[in-house]
Structure formats: structure tokens, C-alpha cells
Amino acid sequence: MPEIRMGTMVNRPVLAKSTVFKILLLLVLYEEQQRQEQEELDRIYRLERESFEDDHKRRREDLLSHYRQLQEDYADLDEIERCRLKRARLSATALGAAVSTQQSVQRRLWVKNRSQAWWERCNQPGFPDEDFHRDFRMSRATFDRICEELGAAVAKEDTMLRQAIPVKQRVAVCIWRLATGEPLRLVSKRFGLGISTCHKLVLEVCAAINDVLLPKYVQWPSKERLQGVMEEFKRLSGISNVVGAMYTTHIPIIAPKINVAAYFNKRHTERNQKTSYSITLQGVMDINGAFTDVCIGWPGSMSDDRVLEKSALYQRGACGSLAGVWIVGGPGYPLLDWLLVPYVQHNLTWTHHAFNEKVADVLKVARGAFGRLKGRWRFLQRRTEVKLQELPAVLGACCVLHNVCEQHREGFDPDLAYELVDDEMLPETLPWSPNTVPIRDAIAHNLLHNVHAGTAFL
């Protein structure tokens, strides 16, 4: 018995040391396994990021190449058109000289006499304000303010052959055309001017609006204004640091002569049961529904995320200029460090529904603003004869005039309401920022438990 007790006492330290050694060995092996797994995850993330960046670079180069080729093609078409017009003018001049020589008739300028009674009546001080607002979508005071700001840019001088068209009439031709969307033939009849003159006036005034008014009326909120915008959006949604709501709409166009497939709009074609083509208009809205950023003119076949990649807004976000703030977008956009989008996966939790409910409240601001934009300026609702390369300036003018009306509290006639249908172009897969996923989850959790969102899901 004593020998057995002594042997047990001798073996205990040996067993204890062996157990400690095994535990330490297991800890080392576990740490090594964890390190290897973390390295593997880092390697996979690095490969995915490199793949995304390579794909983004490749798509960007392809689209820029396509855009350059498009510009070159249009330049060639414009040169052909200029040559044709030059030959026509030379032929007409030669014919006129021959007729004048043969008949010894003194040349004189011939101008068709057209009635301007409708415009003269509208331009009278006693013209009812309600009728003026119906025709031009704004009060006379706002119209006069626009004319005053554009005066130096659009005014022309009288010549020996004819008197210049007044500034007010020039601006009125453009605004009435954009407001009603009526063809140039009817614009010509209303204002007593030639069809080609009306078309030229619309383009000139739109260019002046973009040059003079766009920097003033379409601008990102200043630092002083930004805090107020975030507070207003937080009262609406419960989400902090939101500075805007983003939406992309499509403007119908006539089939272009070149690169037709790029402008083919599959969603509109299926809905309208006829082949449709479009260009895109991406905008960010403040809480009042005014544009703070626009990106205009990319082909209608592009999805919302690809249009975003081509915008100056995306470059600002990539450079860190939007750090610390959120822009809220729809399901067609990627989840980025500065862009919040709703959950789109299947089997959403209550938390996810609560977040999506508040995101939808913010997106209503953008959708409502785009509805007023298209309702107020009916030019945007139908295909137009304006050349594709001239259309972005016209769309930009509509956005500026929208902001002018919103800023000056111009009423919106409910009869003009326009419902946006199936404008969002959704890609098959979307890139996303892995760092933003837990942040979005935390926001969703806070909305459910502290803001009491998700009631609409009950």
C-alpha cells in the first residue's frame, strides 16, 4: 500500500505537465488555424475586390470608347449636313441671281406675315394670372424674373432687315414648348413665328438656362444648409445623416440613326407593347423635391448602377467627398459607403422590413419630384424631334425650371400629375461594400427598436 501511494504521487506532476503541454499545443494549433482562415478570407476578399475593380475599369473603358465613337459619328453626320446645306444655299443663291438678272427685278426680303395675337394677349398686364400659370406652369412674377436673369444671354439686336424677337417672347416660346410638349407646328402658330425659328429659340434659351441658371439653382447643399437637410430627412425616416434621395428615370426618344441597340429600353418595350428607346436622367433630391445633382444623357439600355458609375456623383463618393453622409437609392443601385439601398434578398426579417419601410418613405420624395417634373414639363413624356446630342441641354433646362418653380413655391396642378411606372432598370447582380453591410444592419436594428419602424408590415 505505501508503494502504491508513492507511485501515484510520483506520476501526478508528470500527468499535469503532459495535460498543460497538450492544452498549449491545441491553443497554438487553433490560433494557427484561425490565422490561416483569416488569411484565406482576406485573400478571397482581395481577389473579389480586384475582380470588381478590373470589371469596373473594363466596363468604363468600353462605355467611354462607345461614347467617343458616338461623338465622332455625330460629328461626321453634322459635317455631311453642313455640306448639304451649303450646297443648297449656293444653288439657291445662283438661281436667285439668275432670275434677278433675267427679269431685272430688285431683290427684297420677304417675311411671311403671321398673327401674334395669342402671345400679345398673354403678354398684356391684364392677362389673368391663373391662365398665365396654366400655360407656362409659373406665375408672371417668376417668368419675369427668369427673363431678367437670361436677358443678357438671349437678347439679339435689330438689323436692317428685321427687328429682333424680344427676350420675353424668346423665353416664352421655350417654356411653352417644354410645358405643353406640343409640336413645333403648333408653337409656330401660337407665337406667330416660323417653325425653324421656334426650334432655334428653344435650343438657344435651353443653352442659356444651363449656362446662367443651372449653377445657381442646381447645387449641392452648403455646409450650413446640409445640417438642416439631414435633420429634415431624419424627421421623415428616422435615419441619420441622409442628405438626398436618388432616382433614375427614362426619357423616350425616336430611334437614333446609329447605335440603336444602346438606346433600346427593354422594360418600356414590354410595357408599351412597341419598340421603345430612351436616354436616362439621374437626379438627387433634397427634402423639398429640388434637384441637388443631375446626370443626363446615358443610353436607355444601361441599368441604374451603370448610369451611377458614369456620373460625377460616383466619382465624388469614390474620392471620399461624401464620407459621413448617406444618399438613399432604390434596389437598382449598389450598397456603398455613402449609398443606402433597401434589402432585396428573399425571406426578409422584420428588421429588414422596418428598414425598407423607412427607405421607401425617403424614396417617395424623389419619385414625387420626378412625377412633378414630368407632369409640369410634358415635353419629357413623349418622343421629340430634337437631335440626340442636343437633348441633354433641353433636359437640363427642364430640371432647372423645376427647381425654379419649387423654390418659388409655384403650385402644381393635380391634373398634370404623372405616374412613374417601371422606370428602374435592375441588373442581375450588384456590387456592394462589405464594410457597409453591418452598418446598414445596425441602422435597421435601431429603426425597429428605437424608432418603432415596421408597423406597416404588421
What does this structure look like?
This protein has 458 residues and is an alpha/beta fold. The chain has helices at 2-103, 117-122, 129-136, 140-154, 167-180, 184-191, 195-217, 223-237, 266-272, 304-309, 312-318, 350-376, 391-407, 436-449, and strands at 242-253, 277-285, 291-299, 326-328, 339-340. It contains 14 helices and five strands. It has a five-stranded mixed beta sheet with strand order 3-2-1-4-5. Strand 2 (277-285) and strand 3 (291-299) form a beta hairpin. Helix 4 crosses helix 5 (167-180), helix 5 (167-180) crosses helix 7 (195-217) and helix 7 packs across helix 13 (391-407). Residues 1-10 and 101-110 have low confidence and may be disordered.
> What are the secondary-structure elements, in order, as H or E?
HHHHHHHHEHEEHHEEHHH
How far is it from the N-terminal to the C-terminal residue, by CA?
A: 76 Å
SSE class: alpha/beta
Strand order, largest beta sheet: 3-2-1-4-5
Please give the largest β-sheet.
5 strands, mixed
Oligomer: single chain
Number of helices: 14
